[in-house]
Amino acid sequence: MPVPEWDPDAEKARPGYLYQRMADHVQARIEAGEFPPDAMLPKEYDLVAEYQVSIDTVRRATAELRERGLVVTYPSRGTYVKS
Predict the structure, then answer these.
(1) d(CA 16, CA 56)
(2) Tens-digit pLDDT profile for residues 32-57
(3) In 3D, which of 26, 54, 25 has the Cα closest to residue 40?
(4) In terms of C-beta density within 10 A (0-12 exposed, 13-18 middle, 19 or more buried), how is residue 47 classed?
(5) Which of 40, 28, 22 is nearest to 1 (CA)?
């Protein structure tokens, strides 16, 4: 099932933390197979452009995904979906 497109204006208007909603969206993309196991997530600045959020929001969303056990980050190599 395709994941609905991210609507930055609608997401920023909703109550709650933006980084959690972004993490939820990326998690849905992982679960839908858009990012399969062992795939590298887009680079931070690519996610900034795609989601139209700050670099801090991207970093917090990535940290949230790590806490959920969905991804692992290797310094200077990137963030990968866990197998």
Answers:
(1) 16
(2) 999 999 999 999 999 999 999 999 99
(3) 26
(4) buried
(5) 28
Question: Considering only CA atoms, which of 26, 34, 28 is closest in space to residue 59?
Answer: 26
Q: Confirm if 41 and 71 have CB atoms less than 8 A apart.
A: yes
48: burial class by Cβ within 10 Å (0-12, 13-18, 19+)? middle
CATH code for the part of the protein at 8-81: 1.10.10.10
Query: What pTM did the predictor assign?
Result: 0.94
Coil, strand or helix at 46: helix
Q: What residue ranges do the domains of the chain occupy?
A: 8-81
